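Sanity check

After download, print the first record. It should look like this:
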Amino acid sequence: MTHPGARREVLVTGGGRGIGRAVALRFADSGARVFVNFFIDREAAEKTARDVELRGGVAHLVQADLKEPGEITRMAGEVARVAGRLDVLVNNAASGVLRGPLALSPKQWDWVMNTNARPLLLCAQEAACLMSAGGRIVALTSLGSERVIPGYAAVGVSKAALEALTRYLAVELAPRGITVNAVSAGAVATDVWRAFPEGEALLEAARARTPAGRLTSAEEVAEVVFFLASPAAQAIQGQVLVVDGGYSLLA
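Expected structure tokens:
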């Protein structure tokens, strides 16, 4: 078990931008060492790493293509070499192909599944070897896992798989004192929306429909991830916490 007051060792996949960056900075506020995983955008990851240090944390960059099982093994080996253990895994990295189900090719389907769903399984397998009682695994998901969003078929199904896997992992790891949960974020104004045709219009529509009257911020999502990684959340197991300002409540 992690000693009280010891610096926590945290791995955030896709930690360079958006929600991953906000999560990395939130853990930095508590003095954690944050392993910031990235694949392509080194510049963004380096900026996040600098900001982690400025916020009082310790940063360690880890480049890895999570579609490749060998890269995940290498990333876990780097965490083991540097820290000797892992306290928190935040499975955040995601990507997608924006097409309807009838337009998806097998290659596109596999690419999205291998980017969004399979890494949780492989990262959790590696993390479980580095974690003791009190370990935390938190996955990021989205409302598209349950609701149909135009052009979101592959991503939505990959997130549904991720949520089901969260429950299976939770039951498997609970006897070891490790919790596994997911956070489902509503529309958050991050770079990912630029990939959508009329992304700004979609964000504005989401803002108008949200009972809270505003979009959820990446920082608000990060606070919930941080809570799930805290001792206070030890009894929360296999759950999907929705953070969307009430958007998903409306018919």
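If your output differs, re-run the checksum step. Summary of this record's structure: The mean pLDDT is 95.
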